[in-house]
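Supplementary Methods, section 5.1.

A reviewer requested that the exact input to the structure prediction be made available. We therefore reproduce it here, unchanged from the version used in the analyses.
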Amino acid sequence: YILNSTTLIGRCIPAILMNVLNVGAQVVTNNGDINVDSNLLQIPTASGGQQKVDLSALKEGMALINKYVDFKDISSKLMDDMIEVWPWMIGLLLLGMIISFLVIVIMRWVACPVIWFLILVLLAGLGVGLWFTIDRYMRLGNAAKQWAFSTDVSYYTQTREFWLALAIIDGVLLLILLLLVLCLCNRIRLAIKLIEQASRAVACMMSSLFLPFIFYILQLVNVLVFIAIAVYLASNGTPYYQAVSSVQSRNGTQCTPKTFTPQSQDEKCVFISYGGDPNIFRLQVYNLFAFFWNANFVIGLGQVTLAGAFASWYWAFDKNSDVPTFPVAYSLWRALRYHLGSIAFGALIIAIIQIIRAILEYAERKLEKSDNTVAKFAIKCLKCCFWCLEKILRFITRNAYIMIAVHGKNFCASAKDAFSLLMRNILRVSVLNSITTFLMIIAKLFVVAAITFISFLAFTGEITIPFFALTVGNMNYYWVPIVVVVIGTYIIADVFFDVYDMAIDTIFLCFLEDCERNDGSPEKPYFMPKDLMGIVGKSNKFKTNENENA
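The structure derived from this sequence is encoded token-by-token as follows.
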């Protein structure tokens, strides 16, 4: 279709909208009413005739144009704000990067007090909650109401049974947590030491923190290629047209624009979709599968590279002199030279699960208008099962990649070794994962909260920096740059702490392997630092001058 166009506020719009706007401007009276009898309420049609404009349609058209003008005004102000404060935004993002790095570096000193403080706060909170619920239970006494079902939530707070139930739940949680802390005290200390050693490893190879940005670029290329192929396939095939007519016998019939002859004024031949080739859908599925496979391959390549770099740090007997000069670059070369097949196989397994989940999602969309509740329930169960299966396989694949980087075996052998090693140390795995997850969340929130606070002070004029001339009074929407900076900071913090999390997992697996494979003799010395040896009760049975524990 070809529409005549004209300009409005520097933008190209259909000429018919401009005609409606001009007509509206001429038929509106001085007091804002519309002159219904005006002969101007007619616009030319495509056939050369005249068509009277419906008043409601005219009002809707003018309202849409006003909304467009308002949107353009707001977007122009937003762009002006962004142009004015972009140096601040870049500076704040760099500050977020620096804070993330400093948090990782100082984790070797603050991990122990932070974790134990949080554990004590959690125990104290449960203790205070237990005291409060028991106190409320005792205070109600005879004034309490009888237990009964009610839609008013506040009614339950006036019954003794409600506070008794809360006290029992709180007391059970307090007892379980207290027993876990007492029984797993050494394992908690071990997890803290592993986190501290991971901080040392990251500080020794700072380039590892910036490696994920390269893989993010590869992921972006993968997304763009997927979108380009999907759009090309969607526009491929034979165009399908249908007639839109008030005549029931012709409405919905297939038509061809070049040979279509309308039998009434409102009859049109409109485009519906591209079709006619059944292979288009199959190619779209294949394109989606390739996208999943490529995305997981890039993730796997990054994990193998980081695992190889951190493993080279752990298995260096002298952590100051035996670590390779460029551990990240050397690990990336090893991954590209020897492990591409294993990485691709692991990515293939995840991609198969993801394409099955996508097919289930497509089937669920198709069943939305169906009354088959059994099929809907079955699909929801399958979606839940495959979601859990994907999480399990991601965990196994991640640890398999670490063993690939350490030993250089194929994917299946590495997955088997990693899974067996973790199952033999399941308590250590549980404690470390719980503490690491909790610590990562707190660290990310700290970085984001710090940058949010600084951004608010900067964009509201509370602080100024001589190098950046920012006139806050000229800003229209100061909260937009704050939101952009906060989102960017979270992405940066997530990238940095994902690297740190990979360092923890790698050093943990290397530690378990070190404990089982070596005995401290000169032939089989322990590679772990003395801090870890002291916790697990191990030591090398020979004297050495290497400063491996510095």
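The CA atoms of residues 309 and 328 lie 5 Å apart. These observations are discussed further in the main text.
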